[in-house]
Design brief:
Blueprint lengths: L3 H9 L3 H6 L5 E4 L6 E6 L5 E3 L35 E6 L2 E6 L11 E3 L6 E3 L13 E8 L5 E8 L27 E6 L2 E6 L9
């Protein structure tokens, strides 16, 4: 069932089809540190989708870990050698390896994303919006309770029950989140896009 706020948002946008599959006033998202297109665009309501597949020009971005904050997976970038383009990145509970990429081919079954941030491989069931018929290859983007990126791609189409965070009413008994942050966001689930608990909420890091 579509949440009440989502249903109202769909009607207010001018109908289910245009609300879920359209992208009004798209703005290109550039690659981090330059003016090259990332292939991603942001729609007027905040939705981000992958319009075209582009090469990430900076597949490796140096990590930010230091000796005083070391531990967990790594202390320096040289510790991150399981795959190419490794970097040792600081999170709230230690330093962890993240692996960059230049193209989707570097990511096996995943997709290479560098939309305004360091290049990384992310899960995805579509590579661009052309894979989604009348829908969009939309990006879920956030962080978990320890600050690790949570990103994935999936088609957003007429079967979705939400499109953006604004469509998801926060439950009164929802888990604790930092003040001002939503506890309910539009997320990719096994059944498609629906409202669910924000990844960064729900418990202490670790």
């Amino acid at each position: 069932m579509v949440p009440v706020m989502a249903a109202l948002a769909l009607v207010g946008y001018g109908g289910c089809d245009s609300r879920l599959t359209g992208c009004p006033d798209p703005v290109p998202i550039l690659q981090s540190g330059g003016d090259a297109p990332s292939g991603f665009v942001q729609c007027a309501d905040g939705l981000v989708h992958r319009q075209t597949v582009e090469t990430c020009l900076e597949p490796h971005v140096p990590g930010d870990c230091d000796e005083d904050f070391g531990g967990a997976d790594c202390a320096t970038d040289s510790d991150c050698s399981d795959s190419p383009h490794g970097a040792c990145v600081k999170r709230t509970n230690g330093c962890f390896c993240e692996y960059g990429c230049a193209t989707d081919a570097d990511c096996g079954p995943q997709m290479c994303v560098c939309a305004g941030s360091r290049a990384r491989c992310v899960p995805g069931s579509c590579s661009a919006s052309s894979d989604c018929g009348d829908g969009l290859c939309a990006l879920e983007s956030g962080r978990d309770v320890c600050g690790a990126p949570v990103m994935q791609l999936a088609c957003l189409n007429e079967g979705a029950s939400c499109r953006t965070e604004a469509d998801c009413a926060e439950e009164e008994d929802s888990v604790s989140c930092p003040e001002g942050d939503p506890a309910q966001v539009c997320r990719i689930t096994a059944g498609g896009w629906s409202c669910g608990e924000a990844p960064h909420c729900g418990g202490p890091c670790g």
